[in-house]
Amino acid sequence: MSETALLSAVTARRADLVALTQELIRIPTLNPPGLHYREICDFLGARLKARGFTVEMIRARGAPADSDKYPRWNLVARLASGAGDCVHFNSHHDVVAVGHGWTRDPFGGELDGDRIYGRGACDMKGGLAASIIAAEAFLDTHQAFNGAIEVSATADEESGGYGGVAYLAEQGYFSPDRVQHVIIPEPLNKDRICLGHRGVWWAEIETQGRIAHGSMPFLGDCAVRHMGAVLEEMEATLFPLLASRRTAMPVVPEGARQSTMNINSIHGGEPEPEADFTGFPAACVPDRCKITIDRRYLIEENADEVRAEIVALLEKVKAQRPTFTYELKELWTVSPTMTNRDAPVVKTVAAAIAKVLDKQADFVVSPGTYDQKHIDRIGKLHNCIAYGPGILDLAHQPNEWVGVQDMEDSAKVMALTLAELLA
Questions:
Q1: Nearest to residue 245, comparing CAs of 178, 190, 198, 307?
Q2: Cα 219–315–259 angle (5° rounding)?
Q3: Strand runs (DSSP E) across 155-222, as ranges?
Q4: Cα angle value 56/61/64 (rounded, 5°)
Q5: How far is 90 from 184, CA to CA, in rounded Å?
Q6: Dist. CA 204–CA 281, nearest whole Å
Q7: Average pLDDT, whole number, for the chain?
Q8: Using CB atoms within 10 A of its CB, is residue 215 exposed (0-12), middle (13-18) or buried (19+)?
Q9: Where in the chain is the domain with CATH 3.40.630.10?
């Protein structure tokens, strides 16, 4: 079957692509806590089973956040024909909180011109829909092919992927003996191939004090003031130091080519009261204050150095404050990763981009991690990229949207990739 026929088959499914994306957006798979995971897996499973795929529903029992109330459901669908390679499209089905500032229904899937709006539209239900349309167009135009196609919809990427791809990788679903090529349709722009990501090191820092009556703070020791000294030292020395470091990795956007750290949260003193509580706080000196830090590091750095830098900062503050005590708790870490540009999936997708868009692909690295980290680290499968529709800057924003033409073009690139790798 000719490439022209395959591309025409994708174009003919444009309305279906729009409808599928809208239906996925209308299933509010919010994480946390993990809503409607089974519902979206059942929806996708019915569609793929009708096309001849063998469908598995896999609960990540024992994974972080998995519970009977919020089970972590994943779907893996496979269709094989011959003994050739397997091409796997992996998309996460969870979406982040809606937040404020929307002027559209976050779960309405509204189509306005070329844009479909909704939480998860670009990150990454548009990419999930595009991969399914690509696979269906390929199957309808290639009655015989040599290899296997897999489509997965996985849980919890937005909170680390431990109830999704990490669990599946531990069970062997991303073993190089089973899968040879992985494409993750994250929203990195349709003319870009994302080779990998920076490293990440998350930790909690708790400063400790002594509780006392708020009218006599001199009898206590304020943990919030201790944390203020930590933040002041970060502003004075750590943040300027991180800004001075640059990487050779092609990270986008430009601001992410340096080391960065985000203070993800801060909590001190009494716990926040319930929403319906109408009273006032008690007068107490806070004896605990905690921050969560999200440190993104470069391929030129390593996790041990990142941790040592934080410890040195805390010890410096301790030397300046006689009653200062702290606890440092590491939450999780992932090393930077970058697929070789000569990898088969990279070269094949780059050639398809040139055919569909009439331009050379850009090669980039993501500022944040995504599920490639687990495929690489646990699955030991390095022939993996992120490629999909959507504009990265729109992810997690109010009025998130994905372009219909971008999805169609990306689906064409994915379909041509299947035709080349499964010839």
A1: 198
A2: 125
A3: 181-184, 192-197, 199-208
A4: 125
A5: 5
A6: 25
A7: 97
A8: exposed
A9: 3-197+336-421
Q: Is 1's pLDDT higher than 80?
A: no
Rounded to whole angstroms, the Cα distance separating 87 from 141 reads 17
What does 277-299 look like in DSSP terms, one character per residue? --S----B---EEEEEEEEEE-T
- Using an 8 Å Cβ cutoff, are 38 and 59 in contact? no
Give, as one character, the DSSP assignment of residue 56: E
**Statement: 3-197+336-421 belongs to CATH 3.40.630.10:** yes
| pLDDT tens-digit map of 88-132 | 999 999 999 999 999 999 999 999 999 999 999 999 999 999 999
Q: Is the peptide bond before 414 cis (omega within 30 degrees of 0)?
A: no
Note the pLDDT tens digit of each residue in 144-199.
999 999 999 999 999 999 999 999 999 999 999 999 999 999 999 999 999 999 99
Q: In the 8-state DSSP scheme, what is residue 239?
A: H
**Taking a C-beta distance cutoff of 8 angstroms, is the pair 341, 198 a contact?**
no
**What is the distance between the alpha carbons of residues 310 and 315, in angstroms, rounded to a whole number?**
9
Q: What is the pLDDT of residues 272-324, one digit of tens each?
A: 889 899 999 999 999 999 999 999 999 999 999 999 999 999 999 999 999 99
Q: Is the dihedral of CA 7, 112, 125, 401 positive or negative?
A: positive
Q: Is residue 3 exposed (0-12), middle (13-18) or buried (19+ Cβ within 10 Å)?
A: middle
Tokens of 205: 């820092």
Inter-residue contact 150 to 137 (CB < 8 Å): no
Q: What's the pTM value of the predicted model, to 2 decimals?
A: 0.91
What pLDDT score was predicted for residue 301?
97
Q: In what side-by-side order are the strands of the sheet with 325-334?
A: 260-268, 288-297, 199-208, 325-334
What's the rounded Cα separation, in Å, for the pair 374 and 182? Answer: 12
For CATH 3.30.70.360, list the domain ranges present in the chain.
Answer: 199-333
Q: Tokens standing for 365?
A: 């690295």
Alpha helices of 12-146 — where are they, by DSSP H?
14-25, 37-50, 126-141
At the top level of CATH, the class of 199-333 is alpha beta
Rounded to whole angstroms, how far apart are CA atoms 374 and 380? 8
Q: What is the DSSP letter of 84?
A: S
The length of the chain, given as a count of residues? 423
Report how far residue 41's alpha carbon sits from residue 258's, in angstroms, rounded to the nearest whole number.
Answer: 38
- In this structure, what DSSP letter does residue 124 have? I
Cβ-proximal residues to 124 (8 Å cutoff; 6+ apart), any chain: 91, 92, 185, 186, 187, 388, 390
Residues recognised as catalytic: 94, 157
